[in-house]
Amino acid sequence: MTARIIDGKAVAERLRAGLATRIAGLHFRPGLRVVRVGEDPASGVYVRNKDRAALAAGFDSSTIHLPAEARESDLLMLVENLNIDPAVDGILVQLPLPPQIRPEMVIAAIDPAKDVDGFHTVNAGKLVTRQHGLVPCTPKGVMHLLREAGATLRGARAVVLGRSQIVGRPMAQLLLDADCTVTMVHSNTRDLAAECRRAEILVAAVGKPELVRGDWVGEGAIVIDVGINRNAAGKLVGDVAFAEALPRAAAITPVPGGVGPMTIACLLENTLEAALARRGHT
Ligand SMILES: Nc1nc(=O)c2c([nH]1)NC[C@@H]1CN(c3ccc(C(=O)N[C@@H](CCC(=O)O)C(=O)O)cc3)C=[N+]21
């Protein structure tokens, strides 16, 4: 078998086109503000791609750039101003932040109704208690991709590799809500390879270049690679050794062109959702 390659770029384009159509029918433009502090290189690509996509889909989007030396109080004041600005529906503060700024303080300061990253404790709590809230973009994008790939979720053995606040944990929750049998595995798991091999759906989100080798992938598995890493040669690679996984998987996402573009499309989807919810159209 050779895996079908799941084209995240194409799925993201369709999702964004659908959002553009919906926005064209509104009497306002949903507002998104991305706040960047200093110069994290990973954030650079993300902010550029996002700005282009947001403007093309009809959002009122802009990036606010603070210097690397900004104080935590400067950022908190900026967030407060965005919270009360009626033109702003979505606020995203790029992570990582410089060391003098505590990310948990900043995330806690964002109005949960405008928290389009879905990182605020209120939104995390809503996800776990199955209430309607803003869902983190990357796991939300992965669910879109699984549905597009025609994956049968009910009863499927899903393994999530990685337990981060922003991907692994919410990912497991969404898979559980879709009736998967979910296993979370991580750096302390005994025999990671054997656990991964049992997966019918494998989501790798650890940020370790090509950690998942071909023999970690079960025959016919659907493999979703969330990692975006640079390898020793400076090439962009995922958490999965793509060429090794290809002959075993039924379907697999590439890096780049897999999950990354979906994260951006879901950020825009969340911004539209937040805009409608704030105006009372749920
Ligand atoms: N508050 C916050 N929320 C985030 O969601 C967030 C963040 N901070 N900080 C940085 C990371 C990184 N991130 C990416 C999203 C999409 C691509 C993406 O679209 N990648 C393309 C192109 C990659 C390339 O060419 O370099 C792809 O995978 O095909 C990359 C990186 C979101 N992040």
Automatic annotation (TrEMBL):
Binding site for NADP(+): 162-164, 228
Record bears the keyword Repeat: no
Recorded GO MF terms: methenyltetrahydrofolate cyclohydrolase activity; methylenetetrahydrofolate dehydrogenase (NADP+) activity
PROSITE patterns recorded: THF_DHG_CYH_1, THF_DHG_CYH_2
Enzyme Commission code: 1.5.1.5, 3.5.4.9
Pathway info: One-carbon metabolism; tetrahydrofolate interconversion
Keywords for this protein: Amino-acid biosynthesis, Histidine biosynthesis, Hydrolase, Methionine biosynthesis, Multifunctional enzyme, NADP, One-carbon metabolism, Oxidoreductase, Purine biosynthesis
SUPFAM superfamilies xrefs: Aminoacid dehydrogenase-like, N-terminal domain, NAD(P)-binding Rossmann-fold domains
Cited function: Catalyzes the oxidation of 5,10-methylenetetrahydrofolate to 5,10-methenyltetrahydrofolate and then the hydrolysis of 5,10-methenyltetrahydrofolate to 10-formyltetrahydrofolate.
Subunit structure: Homodimer.
Name under which the protein is recorded: Bifunctional protein FolD
Species for this entry: Siccirubricoccus deserti
